[in-house]
Task: inverse folding
């Protein structure tokens, strides 16, 4: 179990993380979300021992994670971290980068391990290509495979799919998260993208104002977002009479006391997102057809989220 107890951290005077406490079980996937600058990357770095804490403790099983004041070399062997800027060796091949820290003593095992990881990150076709010739997204996948090479107990990932194109992203996510579950690797991922979370993460931690604003399963937070920040992670939402409603929870009806004027239509594929003005406030709803600007519509809240 990763046990984070009362963790506080500042780079200088102003606090970045204040009194955070949470646990992550072996094999669990915890997603860290929050606005840009909320401290997601900082939290990952602190968890790997890159900085000394101002207060609190972090333990993995019986071992305390400590910062540079206590360790000559930053980091721990059982934990791997993939930063937003991944550091690879540009002049050697993809396979060589992945196997860089694997022992040459067991040549056959090393070869098999590299082949397995190339498959997980879907890079078998470029195994012998020099890394400097790869795209940003391919490099990101090499960094992921390299972090997995020595089978860490915990993996810390900062925006792991941010450089990867939409065609590849979904299959890659499924492949990576399945691999991590199969191998019981604990995983903490900082992300902006709900697609990294929904269907994969066991729990979600929302950082805001230096603190944990919400911590629960993605399903629970989706069904009952207590704050606008949590709701905004999942999609367009509205606050009507102090209640939060997603865009799909507003329906157009023949008449109601929620009278709105259509301002804009956005084509979204299988639906249109309609922006309308309701008593001076912007509201968003989903509709199968686009609507004329200026049209008067009546809305009904179709489902209370909780
Ligand atoms: N090395 C540093 N020294 C001083 N301040 C820093 C340092 N790194 C980050 N910060 C500050 O700490 C705060 C949190 O930054 P952090 O990168 O952890 O946020 P984040 O949530 O990961 O953001 P993003 O989603 O944009 O990556 C920001 O205000 C940032 O300016």
Result:
């Amino acid at each position: 179990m990763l046990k984070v107890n009362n963790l506080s951290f500042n780079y200088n005077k102003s606090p970045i993380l204040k009194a955070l406490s949470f646990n992550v079980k072996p094999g669990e996937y915890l997603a860290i979300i929050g606005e840009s600058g909320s401290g997601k990357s900082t939290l990952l770095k602190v968890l790997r021992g890159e900085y000394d804490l101002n207060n609190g403790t972090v333990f993995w099983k019986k071992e305390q994670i400590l910062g540079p004041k206590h360790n000559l070399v930053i980091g721990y062997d059982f934990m791997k971290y993939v930063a937003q800027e991944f550091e690879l060796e540009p002049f050697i091949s993809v396979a060589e980068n992945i196997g860089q820290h694997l022992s040459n003593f067991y040549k056959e095992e090393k070869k098999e391990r590299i082949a397995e990881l190339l498959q997980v990150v879907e890079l078998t076709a470029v195994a012998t290509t020099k890394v400097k010739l790869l795209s940003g997204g391919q490099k990101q996948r090499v960094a992921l495979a390299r972090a997995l090479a020595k089978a860490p107990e915990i993996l810390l990932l900062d925006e792991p799919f941010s450089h990867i194109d939409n065609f590849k992203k979904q299959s890659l996510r499924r492949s990576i998260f399945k691999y991590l579950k199969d191998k019981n690797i604990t995983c903490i991922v900082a992300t902006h993208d709900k697609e990294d979370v929904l269907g994969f993460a066991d729990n979600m931690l929302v950082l805001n104002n230096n603190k944990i604003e919400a911590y629960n399963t993605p399903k629970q937070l989706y069904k009952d977002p207590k704050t606008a920040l949590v709701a905004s992670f999942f999609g367009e939402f509205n606050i009507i009479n102090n209640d939060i409603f997603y865009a799909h929870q507003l329906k157009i009806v023949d008449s109601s006391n929620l009278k709105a004027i259509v301002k804009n239509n956005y084509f979204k594929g299988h639906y249109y997102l309609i922006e309308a003005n309701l008593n001076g406030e912007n509201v968003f709803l989903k509709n199968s057809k686009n609507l004329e600007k200026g049209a008067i519509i009546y809305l009904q809240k179709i489902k209370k989220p909780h």
Q: What stands out?
A: The chain has a mean pLDDT of 93.
